[in-house]
Amino acid sequence: MPSALPIADPAPVDGLITPGPGAGDVPFGVYVHVPFCRVRCGYCDFNTYTASELRGVRRDDYAGHAVREIQWAAQVLDRSGVPRRPVSTVFFGGGTPTMLPASDLAMVLRAIDDTWGILPGAEVTTEANPDSVDASSLETLRAGGFNRMSFGMQSAVPHVLATLDRTHDPERVPLVVDLAKQLGLDVSLDLIYSTPGESLDDWRTSLDAAIACEPDHVSAYSLIVEDGTAMGRAVKRGELPAPDDDVAADMYELADRVLGDAGYGWYEVSNWAKGDEHASRHNLSYWKGHDWWGVGPGAHSSVAGTRWWNVKHPAAYANRVLADESPAAGRETLDDETRYVERVLLATRVRGELRTSELRQEGRGRVAGLIARGLVDGRSALGAPGTPGRLDLTLRGRLLADAVVRELLDEPWSVSS
Description:
The chain has helices at 62-80, 102-115, 135-143, 158-163, 173-182, 200-212, 230-236, 245-261, 281-287, 314-322, 336-347, 361-372, 378-382, 395-399, 401-408; strands spanning 28-34, 87-94, 118-128, 148-154, 186-193, 217-222, 265-268, 271-273, 291-295, 300-303, 306-310, 328-333. It is α/β, with parallel strands linked by helices. Helix 1 (62-80) runs parallel beside helix 2 and helix 6 packs parallel to helix 8. The protein is globular and about 60 Å long. 42% of the residues are buried.
C-alpha cells in the first residue's frame, strides 16, 4: 500500500491559511494527482489504487471531484488574503492520469483556467504510460490545452520491465513519442536504473532506445527500494538482490556521458534536456520554492509559507470536497530555519540555481573544500567581477549531492578523496 502521510498539525475544515511574508511574490502552479493505475508496480509506494482497491467511489466521478476542489481552493485563497496569480505551470501526475478519458483531463484543465487563468505559454504536462494513450487521446489532450507529455518508459529491456512489474510493450514507446511529436507536444521520457538484475549493458540498451526516440527531455532516477512495497518484501526475503550503490554510480556516469553526447545537458541531478527551453518548468518550480496547489487524494500543496497534504483514499477525498470541506489531512507552517534548509537542499541539485551568497557563513566557509575535492565547480562558485558566484555540482558532486548538502548546512560528512 502507499506510504503513510507525514504527521503534523491538524488542518482546519475551512482550509484558511495565514500568509507569510512575500505572499503572492512567487509564481503559482497547480499539480493534479490522478491516483489510478491498471496494476500496482512492485517498486511503487505512490498514492495509487487499482480497480479492486477502490471502495465507496467511482473512477468516473474523479474529474468532477477535482473540479470541486479547484473552485473551492480559489475561494479559500481569496478569503485567506493570498493574492490571485495566473497559473505558470500545470502537471497531472499519478498514478496514471491517462487512465481517465482525455476529455476528463481537459475538463479539469479548463476548470483551472476558468478559476485562476493560465498564462500564455504556460507549461501543461500530463504523465502517461505508453499503453494508455493513442492518436485519438493525444489529439484530445492537445486540443484541450496540454503541450507536454511525460511517458513512463522506465526501461527498454523486457526482463527489467518484468522485475519492475511494468506491463507495457517497449516497442510501443517510439510509436507514442512519434505521435505526440507530430502533434507539436514536447516529450519527456522517464527512465529507472539500478533495478535488481539490471546490467550496465541493459542500462546502455535503454539509454540508446530512449535517445533513438528523440525526446526533448529525459529523466533518469535510481531505483529506491521502499519498505512496504512488493519489491521491498522480495528483497528482504532474498528473492531479489538489493541495488548496489557502486553499480548505480556507474550507471549514472554512463547516462550523463551518453545523454551528453546526444545533445542533452543536465540541469538537475536526475534530469537532462535538449536546451533550457525543454527543461521541466513545473519541477523547477518545486526546486526553486514557488507556490503550488495540489489537487486530489494525497496531493501536497505549498502556498504562502504553509504546506499541507490531502487525505489519501479517493472515497475520503470525495466526501470532503462534496461537503465543501478541506480535504487536507495535515499541515505545517514553514519557519525560517526550515525554509533555509530546504532552499539549500533543493537548489543545490539544480545547475546554477543556488548563489553562494545565500549560504550562511559556515556553509560559505565549506565551499573551498568542496571545490578542492572536485565536488563543486570552482569557476562558477567564485564568480566573476559583477557576477555572483553560483554553486554548480561537478559530475562527482552530483553522485555525492546529499553529502555536499550536509556540508553546506554545516553537518560534516565524510567524503573520500
